[in-house]
From TrEMBL, chain A:
SUPFAM superfamilies: PLP-dependent transferases. Residues 39-422 form the Aminotransferase class I/classII large domain. Pfam families: Aminotran_1_2. This is 1-aminocyclopropane-1-carboxylate synthase 3-like. Keywords: Pyridoxal phosphate. Belongs to the class-I pyridoxal-phosphate-dependent aminotransferase family. It comes from the Eukaryota. One of its GO terms (molecular function) is 1-aminocyclopropane-1-carboxylate synthase activity. The gene is LOC105162216. Gene3D superfamilies: Aspartate Aminotransferase, domain 1 (3.90.1150.10), Type I PLP-dependent aspartate aminotransferase-like (Major domain) (3.40.640.10).
Automatic annotation (TrEMBL), chain B:
Residues 1-20 are annotated as: Disordered. Coiled coil: none annotated. SUPFAM superfamilies: PLP-dependent transferases. InterPro entries: Aminotransferase_I/II_large, Ethylene_sulfur-biosynth, NHTrfase_class1_PyrdxlP-BS, PyrdxlP-dep_Trfase, PyrdxlP-dep_Trfase_major, PyrdxlP-dep_Trfase_small. It comes from Sesamum indicum (Oriental sesame). GO terms for molecular function: 1-aminocyclopropane-1-carboxylate synthase activity; aromatic-amino-acid transaminase activity; L-aspartate:2-oxoglutarate aminotransferase activity; pyridoxal phosphate binding. This is Probable aminotransferase ACS12. Pfam families: Aminotran_1_2. Residues 135-514 form the Aminotransferase class I/classII large domain. The gene is LOC105160558. PANTHER family: AMINOTRANSFERASE ACS12-RELATED, BIFUNCTIONAL ASPARTATE AMINOTRANSFERASE AND GLUTAMATE/ASPARTATE-PREPHENATE AMINOTRANSFERASE-RELATED.
Length: 434, 526
C-alpha cells in the first residue's frame, strides 16, 4: 500500500552508526541518575560555547524581543514566508562565511539559498544536479547520513573514492580516476564530486594540493563539485582552512565553466552549535541553480524567527569574532584532553585540526583484521564499557579498526569518565603492539 | 501580460549532431543521385565533420525564448560560459548537465498565480507610501487576528523571541539536536489545538502527529510515502495551484483533475471521480490516492459527512489512499459544520489506514513565517516513514518552544478561534456585498480566506484566453492581484479567486472602486 521509497531500507537507519544511538537512547548516561549508562560519543554536536550565546541573549533582550519602539515586529515575522529569505539575514550570513574564511573569499548574499538545515540543502542539491540513477563520487570515509540524504528520495548513487591510512586517508588523483572508472563499469553517469571539508569523520582540512587535484579532475570530466563546508567554523589549529571557492580563485578560474559548477553547503549547526534552529544554506555561482534551488527551498524554509534572531547575533560583529575565536580555543583544548588521555593508554588519533571529533586507530584491539572483528569490538565497547563510539565501517572506511569519537557534546567530567572507561578497555585487552 | 522577473539564462546542452543531421540526409540524396553510394556517403560525412568543427568553434549562446528583461550581466555570463569556457576547459565538449527538473523550475514563473504574487512584491499597495500599488487579493493569508496573538504574547510576559521568558538556560534545550519530527510537548500542543479547531468532535492523538516545516513539505512527504514516481492522485478541480509544485516537482506524482462544475456549486461528484479513475486505468496510469482539500481551495465549500463517507467507500473499493488537506479547518464562517476526515476514520476502524490529514498553522493561526505543518495519519507505516523524512523539512526547536504554551492555553485558543471566525465572516459579508453591488456574484462558500467569484459574463471570448485577458486587466489596469480559475485548473472559464483576509475594512471600498472600473469597461459576453 505504500510506495517503494517508503518501504525500502534507503533511509540507512539500520547502519551501525544509528544503531549505536538507539542503544544509547535505551540506557543514556547521566552523572546523577544513571552514572553507569552509555556515554554518547557518537553525536557531532558542539555544546561548548552555549554560555556565550546565553549571555549575549540575556544582554540583548531588547533587540531580540518582539516589541519595538514603533510597535511589534511579531506580525512581520509571522507573515514573512518569502523563499528568497530575509535580506538582512543573508547579508550577515555572507559576511560571517567570509569571516570564517579569513575574508579571503567574498560571498554575495544573493547567491545564498536558505534551507532548513544542511540535510535539506544536500538533498535539494542532488535534486538539482542529478537524475535518479546518476552518481556522485564521495571520498571515504564519509558521514553515514549521506547514504540517506543524497540517495534516498533522489535515487542518486554514491560511488566511493578509496583512501588509505598509509597516507592518512588523503585524496589522491589515482583514487579519483579509479572511482570514476568504477562508476563507468557500473554504467553510472558521474555528475560530480561531493567532498566534505573539513572532513567528517577525519576532522582534517583539505590541502591546497588535494583541492587542486579535485578541481582539475572536475574540469577534465566536466562535472560538478559540491563542497560541504559545514565544519568550516570548527577549525582550531593549523593548517588554515582553504575553501573550494578560494582554491578556484587562486587558479583564476572565476570566468570559466567550472565556476558555475562549484557549490558550497554550510549551516550554523556545528560551529555555532545551533542545530535546533535548522539553518542551512547552499552557495551557488550559477544563477539558474540559484533560481531553481530557491523555489525548491519551499520544502524546507528557515523559520523567520531563526532568521531574525541570527541576523541580530551575526550582526554583532564584535561578539561574533570573539565567539569564533573562543569557540576554537575551547575545541582545541577539548581535543587535547581527549587525545592526551587516549595516547596515555596507547591509542593513536589521526592528527586533525578541525571538527568536533577524533579519528582513532583501534586496530591493535581487533582479534582479526576484518570488519567482523571491528563490529565485535564495537559491540564490546558499547555493551561492556558503555561508550557509543562510531565504527569506521559505518563511514565506509576501506580499512577496519578505525572509530570516530566525538568530544564536544558532553561536559569535561563526562569526557574524563569516557577516557577512564577506555583505559579499562585497554587494560583488559591483550597487549598487542598498540 | 507583464512580467519583469529577471530572465535566467537557460543552460541547455544542444549537441551539434542534431543540427548536423538536418543537413546530411538531403545532401546524401542529392549526391547519391549522381556519385553513387561511396561519394554519396563520403561527401556528406566530410561536410558533416567540417560543420561540426565549425559549430564547435563558433558556438553561439543557446537560443532562449525572448525574455522580458534580460539584464546585461546575464547576457555576458551566457557568452562567457558557453563560448570561451569550452575552449579553455580541457577535454570538455559540453557543459555539465544539471537535472532536467532545474530548467523547468528555474525559468521565470509562467502561471498567473505566481506572476501575480511577483507583481505585488514589486509594486505593493501601501495606503501612505504607494496608494496606486497592486492590492493583494491573491494570497490566502489571514491578517485579521494577529493582534489577538500579540496581546497574548504581551500578557504572558514573553517578549523574548525565544519565548522562554528570559530563562537563559533555555538555550540548551532549544539549540541542540532534537527529534526531527517534533518535540513531544509540541506534538501534544498541536494535537490539542487541532482538537479545538475541529470543535472537539475528534480527539487528536499526539502519537499520530508528525511535525514538518509547513504544509507544503507535509504534502510532499506524504506523496513520497504513498506513491511511486509516475503514479497519480485524483484531485477535485479547481484546486490550489501549489499542488502542482508540491506533488510533481520532486515526488514525480501526477495529478489527475476531477472537474467540478458551477451547476453543482463545484461540489465533487463520485460519478466524476469514478470516470476519472477508470480513464486513468485505461491509460495505464496507476492511481494511488485522492487528494481533497476541505474546506476547499479555491472554491471555499466544505465536503459534507455523506460525501466523506462515500469517498472512503470509493477508496476502499479501489484500495487507494485519501489525503485530506484541512489547513483551513479553523477558518470557517458559514452555517454548515465542518467535518474532518479524522471523524470519518474514527468511526470506520477497518479503513483508518488509508486516511491521512494535512494541517498547519499558516492559515488558521496566521503564522506562515514560522513554518509549522502537520501530517496526521492513522497508518503506522506512513508515520514511521514520514518521521524519518522530516529531517529534510524540520521545524525549528525555538519556534516549537515559542508556540507550545500559546497553543496549550485552551481558553485563549477557544477565544481566538471564535473571534477569528467572526472577523472572517464580517469581511466575507462586506466583500461579497460589495461585489454584489457591482452585479458580480460568488458561489456560496463557508470556509477559507477567499471567495470564488463569477466573472464569466465579463470575459470575451468565453474561454481561457478571454479569462486571462480579464486577469491581465485586473492586474495591470485595476491593480488587483486575483487568481484566475485556469491557474487552478478550473474547467469553466471566467471564475476567479479573491482573497479578502489580507485587507482591512477600510480598503474594501477602494477594491470595489477599482473593480467597478473594470466591470464597466468589459462588454458582457452574449
Amino acid at each position: 500500500m505504500l510506495s517503494r521509497k517508503a518501504t525500502c531500507k534507503s533511509h540507512g537507519e539500520d547502519s551501525s552508526y544509528f544503531l549505536g544511538w538507539q542503544e544509547y537512547e535505551k540506557n543514556p548516561h547521566d552523572p546523577v541518575r544513571n552514572p553507569s549508562g552509555i556515554i554518547q560519543l557518537g553525536l557531532a554536536e558542539n555544546q561548548l560555547s552555549f554560555d556565550l550565546l546565553e549571555s549575549w541573549i540575556a544582554r540583548n533582550q531588547e533587540p531580540t524581543g518582539f516589541m519595538k519602539k514603533g510597535g511589534s515586529i511579531f506580525r512581520e515575522l509571522a507573515l514573512f514566508q518569502d523563499y528568497r529569505g530575509m535580506p538582512v539575514f543573508k547579508k550577515e550570513l555572507a559576511e560571517y562565511m567570509a569571516a570564517i574564511r579569513q575574508d579571503r573569499v567574498r560571498f554575495d548574499p544573493n547567491n545564498i539559498v536558505l534551507t532548513a538545515g544542511a540535510t535539506s540543502a544536500n538533498e535539494a542539491l542532488m535534486f538539482c544536479l542529478a537524475e535518479a540513477g546518476e552518481a556522485f563520487l564521495v571520498p571515504t570515509p564519509y558521514y553515514p547520513g549521506f547514504d540517506r540524504d543524497l540517495k534516498w528520495r533522489t535515487g542518486v548513487e554514491i560511488v566511493p573514492i578509496q583512501s588509505s591510512s598509509v597516507n592518512n586517508f588523503r585524496i589522491i588523483p589515482s583514487a579519483l580516476e579509479e572511482a570514476y572508472q568504477h562508476a563507468q563499469k557500473l554504467h553510472l553517469k558521474v555528475k560530480g564530486l561531493f567532498i566534505t571539508n573539513p572532513s567528517n569523520p577525519l576532522g582534517t582540512t583539505l590541502s591546497i594540493h588535494e583541492l587542486d587535484h579535485l578541481i582539475n579532475f572536475a574540469i577534465d570530466k566536466n562535472i560538478h563539485i559540491v563542497s560541504d563546508e559545514i565544519y568550516s567554523g570548527t577549525v582550531f589549529d593549523s593548517p588554515r582552512f582553504i575553501s573550494i571557492m578560494e582554491a578556484i580563485k587562486k587558479k583564476h578560474l572565476e570566468n570559466t565553466a567550472i565556476w558555475s559548477r562549484v557549490h558550497i553547503v554550510s549551516s550554523l549547526s556545528k560551529d555555532f552549535g545551533l542545530p535546533g534552529f535548522r539553518i542551512g544554506m547552499i552557495y551557488f555561482n550559477s544563477k539558474t541553480l540559484i533560481a531553481a534551488a530557491t523555489k525548491m527551498s519551499s520544502f524546507g524554509l528557515v523559520s523567520s524567527q531563526s532568521q531574525f534572531l541570527l541576523s541580530k547575533i551575526l550582526g554583532d560583529k564584535k561578539f561574533t569574532r570573539n565567539y569564533i575565536m573562543e569557540n576554537r580555543n575551547r575545541l582545541k583544548n577539548r581535543r587535547k584532553t581527549l587525545v592526551s588521555g587516549l595516547q596515555k593508554y596507547g591509542i593513536r588519533c589521526l592528527d586533525n585540526n578541525a571538527g568536533l571529533f577524533c579519528w582513532i586507530d583501534m586496530r591493535c584491539l581487533l582479534t582479526s583484521y576484518t570488519f567482523e572483528a571491528e563490529m565485535e569490538l564495537w559491540r564490546r565497547i558499547i555493551f561492556e564499557y558503555g561508550l557509543n563510539i562510531s565504527p569506521g565501517s559505518s563511514f565506509h572506511c576501506p580499512e577496519p579498526g578505525w572509530f570516530r569519537i566525538c568530544f564536544s557534546n558532553m561536559s569535561e567530567e563526562t569526557l574524563d569518565l569516557a577516557v577512564r572507561r577506555i583505559k579499562a578497555l585497554m587494560d583488559s585487552s591483550s597487549p598487542n603492539a598498540c | 501580460m507583464t512580467g519583469t522577473p529577471r530572465a535566467e539564462p537557460k543552460e541547455s546542452n544542444r549537441s551539434p549532431t542534431r543540427t548536423g543531421m538536418r543537413l546530411i540526409v538531403p545532401l546524401q540524396g542529392i549526391v547519391q543521385g549522381r556519385g553513387g553510394l561511396i561519394l554519396g556517403s563520403l561527401i556528406p560525412c566530410t561536410l558533416f565533420y567540417f560543420l561540426q568543427f565549425y559549430l564547435k568553434r563558433h558556438r553561439s549562446p543557446p537560443q532562449n525564448p525572448p525574455s522580458r528583461s534580460t539584464s546585461a550581466a546575464n547576457l555576458s555570463e551566457l557568452q562567457r560560459s558557453s563560448s570561451r569556457a569550452n575552449l579553455l576547459a580541457r577535454g570538455s565538449t559540453g557543459r555539465a548537465h544539471v537535472s532536467a527538473r532545474v530548467s523547468s523550475i528555474a525559468k521565470p514563473n509562467d502561471s498567473p498565480y505566481y506572476i501575480g504574487l511577483d507583481r505585488v512584491r514589486e509594486d505593493p499597495y501601501d495606503e501612505m507610501g504607494n496608494p496606486d500599488g497592486v492590492i493583494q487579493l491573491g494570497l490566502s493569508e489571514n491578517r485579521l487576528s494577529l493582534d489577538l496573538i500579540e496581546e497574548w504574547l504581551s500578557k504572558n510576559c514573553t517578549d523574548s523571541i525565544l519565548g522562554v521568558g528570559g530563562d537563559a538556560l533555555g538555550i540548551n534545550g532549544i539549540a541542540t539536536y532534537q527529534p526531527m519530527d517534533g518535540l513531544m510537548e509540541f506534538k501534544v500542543a498541536m494535537a490539542d489545538f487541532m482538537t479545538e479547531v475541529m470543535e472537539r468532535k475528534v480527539s487528536f492523538d499526539p502519537s499520530r502527529v508528525v511535525v514538518t516545516s509547513g504544509a507544503t513539505p507535509a504534502l510532499e512527504i506524504l506523496s513520497f510515502c504513498l506513491a511511486d514516481h509516475g503514479n497519480a492522485f485524483l484531485v477535485p478541480a479547481p484546486y490550489y495551484p501549489g499542488f502542482d509544485r508540491d506533488i510533481r516537482w520532486r515526488a514525480g506524482v501526477e495529478l489527475i483533475p476531477v472537474h467540478c462544475r458551477s451547476c453543482d456549486n463545484f461540489t465533487l461528484s463520485i460519478t466524476a471521480l469514478e470516470q476519472a479513475f477508470n480513464q486513468a486505468r485505461k491509460r495505464g496510469q496507476k492511481v494511488r490516492g485522492i487528494l481533497i482539500s476541505n474546506p476547499a481551495n479555491p472554491v471555499g465549500n466544505m465536503l459534507n459527512k455523506d460525501l466523506l463517507y462515500d469517498l472512503l467507500d470509493f477508496a476502499r473499493e479501489r484500495n487507494i489512499h485519501i489525503i485530506s488537506d484541512e489547513i483551513f479547518a479553523g477558518s470557517t464562517y458559514g452555517n454548515e459544520e465542518f467535518v474532518s476526515m479524522a471523524e470519518i476514520a474514527d468511526s470506520e476502524d477497518a479503513d483508518k489506514d488509508r486516511v491521512h490529514i494535512i494541517y498547519g498553522l499558516s492559515k488558521d493561526f496566521s503564522i506562515p513565517g514560522f513554518r509549522v505543518g502537520v501530517i496526521y495519519s492513522f497508518n503506522k507505516s506512513v508515520l514511521a516513514a514520514s518521521r524519518k523524512l522530516t529531517r529534510f523539512s524540520s521545524v525549528s526547536t525555538a519556534t516549537q518552544h515559542l508556540l507550545v504554551s500559546m497553543l496549550s492555553d485552551k481558553r485563549f485558543i477557544q477565544e481566538y478561534l471564535k473571534t477569528n471566525k467572526q472577523r472572517i465572516r464580517s469581511m466575507y459579508d462586506l466583500f461579497v456585498a460589495g461585489l454584489r453591488e457591482l452585479g458580480v456574484e460568488c458561489t456560496k462558500s463557508s470556509g477559507g480566506l477567499y471567495c470564488w467569484v463569477d466573472l464569466s459574463r465579463l470575459i470575451s471570448p468565453y474561454n481561457e484566453k478571454g479569462e486571462l485577458d480579464l486577469w491581465d486587466k485586473l492586474l495591470n489596469r485595476a491593480k488587483l492581484n486575483v487568481t484566475p480559475g485556469s491557474a487552478c485548473h478550473c474547467i469553466e472559464p471566467g471564475w476567479f479567486r479573491f482573497c479578502f483576509t489580507t485587507l482591512n475594512e477600510k480598503e474594501i471600498p477602494l477594491v470595489m472602486e477599482r473593480m467597478r472600473k473594470v466591470v464597466e469597461s468589459c462588454k458582457p459576453s452574449v
